[in-house]
Amino acid sequence: MAATASATAAPGRDAGGEDFAAMLDQTLGRDAGFEGSVITGHVLRLTDEFAIVDVGLKSEGRVPLKEFAPPGMAPEVKPGDTVELFVERYEDRDGAIVLSREKARREESWTNIEKAFAANQRVTGTIYGRVKGGFTVDLGGAVAFLPGSQVDIRPVRDVTPLMGTPQPFQILKMDRARGNIVVSRRAVLEETRAEQRTELIQGLKEGMIIDGVVKNITDYGAFVDLGGVDGLLHVTDIAWRRINHPAEALQIGQPVRVQVIRFNPETQRISLGMKQLEADPWEGIAAKYPPGTKFTGRVTNITDYGAFVELEPGVEGLVHVSEMSWTKKNVHPGKIVATSQEVEVMVLDVDAGKRRISLGLKQVQGNPWEVFLDQHPIGSTIEGEIRNITEFGFFIGLTADLDGMVHMSDISWDEPGEVAITKYNKGDIVRAKVLDVDVEKERISLGIKQLQVDPAADVLDRIHKGDIVTCVVTAVQSNGIEVKVDDVLGGFIRRAELARDKADQRAERFAVGEKLDAKVTAVDRAARKLSLTIKGKEVDEEKQAMADFGSSDSGASLGDILGAAIRRRNQQAQQETE
CA 228, CA 214: separation in Å to the nearest integer? Predict the structure, then answer.
């Protein structure tokens, strides 16, 4: 029985051993088959570097704590949490199971990303790093590459504000075998922008007020992003005041409130304005700036034809170059005023319809010709330096800006102007008399000879038209002769007036220094000249002789009558001499 029992038991033990080995192999084989797969585990405890996890196998697993949080953040795990883990190795050299939370998330993420890519859906990710040519994006465990050109619709200088914030991305391509994923944020923005643009365009109307962001600045204006569509804010519509460049008032990224001025649905061009949201400073401008009033303003711009002066923000007037100075003519406005200079001006004219104000700079100062006339009335004497000599006279400096002219005919009573002017030089200090001040024409006439009494004044006072005067020939010319009366008063006898008989009308019959009698036909007191005639005197004498000695029935010839008249005149002359 013992043998039997022993024999019986042996096979049982063999059978039991085989069952145990089979069970052990089965268990070990099952555990070893978990490598490379994702399983569920429970966090038992935490160490300084690892989380100890029970995954239902013969050994506990450990997972690095850094895998339980995004890069740069604290781990988010505690004992008792249930987590999905990736089995890297069943046992390491310490007999523990090596697990990975990151790879588990990656496997799960890859599966979701493949589904999204197949359905052309967006995925959510976080930009967390910078690499050559772009950035790295965490797509819930899977790492994707974001090219720099796909970050935004327009180039972004600083991506820092975008990093660490979950954002939607579009998958451009992926290769799981190579672990390569390329995403785009720009594609999402363009799609969203297109939707917003369509919605905005449909509801856009002229006059509506919209909030936007300055997108770009040019020399002629700024482009404003209205949320999917851009509008142009021209430099003239930024503010009522003068703005030379949009950068003076705006900067890229600045939020602005604008009004739609014009909108073309066909071209989808939008013109915007900011100043239209403010009160128009030109309303009631005529009452605010009546002509003749003086104001202080700031020079904002200088051109070849004048300078613009800002009277108040948004209201500018033009000081034309002709209204800048009484005395500085043909001078560039930039030599009279400077940009940003405070100046006092007078309102000359206001055209509210054309939004124009004409200003004067010189009008706030006294008219120098009026001031001179008040200080130096006509007939007064002045003294100054000869500043310039011309072919018709010379100019005497009266003030820093005023000159008076002495015409060459007003230099000397006795000498011709051409001769008298040669005795003066530039820089000479001379005295002169004020003859005339023409405020309208801005002219001052001076005279030097008027400082002395006219030596011919007495002669002019006693000589009248029709008088017979004795002259001395001073010059013989082809067209007549020049004579002088009483050595002070000049005169001229034309060739046709030299004799009654045409044969005797020859200037060469006379010699310089010869005395003769002539009849005054005209007196030019201003020019101090006499017009004379010998012919007229002879005709008058003939008429008188006919009246005294002749008659219609006497039978005397003209020669007899004239002979008698001449003898009578000679006798009278002889008696006067005796």
Answer: 13
Residue 435 neighbours by CB under 8 Å, 6+ apart: 378, 410, 445, 446, 447, 450
Q: Write the CB contacts of 508 (distance below 8 Å, at least 6 apart in sequence).
A: 476
Nearest residue to 117 (alpha-carbon basis) of 189, 172, 180, 191: 172
Do 403 and 437 touch, CB atoms closer than 8 A? no
Closest by Cα among 150, 138, 143 to 186: 150
Rounded to 5°, the CA angle 232-235-236 comes to 110
521 touches 485 (CB < 8 A): no
Question: What does R_g of the chain's alpha carbons equal in angstroms?
Answer: 58
CA distance 133 to 192: 25
What sign does the CA torsion over 494, 496, 501, 506 have?
A: positive
Q: Are 489 and 460 in contact (CB under 8 A)?
A: yes
Higher pLDDT: 562 or 411? It is 411
pLDDT exceeds cutoff 50 at 2: no
pLDDT band at 162 (very low <50, low <70, confident <90, very high): confident
E-only strand ranges, 47-121: 50-54, 61-64, 82-89, 97-100
Taking CB atoms within 8 Å and a gap of at least 24, the contacts of 24-27 are: 27/58
pLDDT in tens, 342-373: 999 999 999 988 889 999 998 888 888 888 89
Let me know if 577 is exposed, middle or buried by CB neighbors in 10 A (0-12, 13-18, 19+): exposed
Pairing of strands 306-312, 315-320: antiparallel
**Nearest partner of 359 among 460, 285, 424, 417, judged by Cα:** 285
Which pLDDT score is estimated for 3? 36
Strand partners, 39: 85
CA-closest candidate to residue 326, choices 370, 359, 357:
370
| pTM greater than 0.85 (yes/no) | no
